[in-house]
Description:
Ribosomal Protein S5, domain 2, 4-stranded antiparallel sheet
Amino acid sequence: MHPDSYQTIERISIAEYKDKGSRFIAYAFPVDTSEAIQQQLTMLKAEHPKAVHHCYAFRIGTDKNNWRAQDDGEPSGSAGKPILGQIDSFGLTNLLIVVVRYFGGTLLGVPGLIQAYKSASRQALQSASIITRQLETACCIRCAYERQFDIIKLLKQRKIPFTVHAEAEEIRFTLSVPANRFNELKSVIGDFAIIECP
């Protein structure tokens, strides 16, 4: 069973953590595609060309199976995993966190790195606006011309936005309905229209 909603952040959030002269700047981004992740990584690498590391983690999708943790040259497991751990501890998805590190001259050791990447990520999420997004199902409703006003009334009563397309033989409505309300809509429309999901 898939959830009807998920939590993510509303907008970018930035936090900075310092330890022994090193600066760890965490950027948390709401994302929903691999392309969006790549765009943010490219932008941050251009914005911080002198940083020694651009470590990151992301999780996408409600099933939470699309994820990655990248250490970018730090010792294995010392950066990406602690970042991903914070995404998971907040219960978020559709999120990318990139932590940009400027080396301060003193080695932190693996435990120090884990703490630094974890702390920077946590601070970015603590200052973020966390929101709940409802999953939606894209639908198409087809009906005879004489039933179009019945469909319009049903959709307006339920406050479901739609677009109407007049075709030769029928009227077609395109809409997105909250996933948890799809079956209700399907049963209300009943026999006088056809509802399809691509």
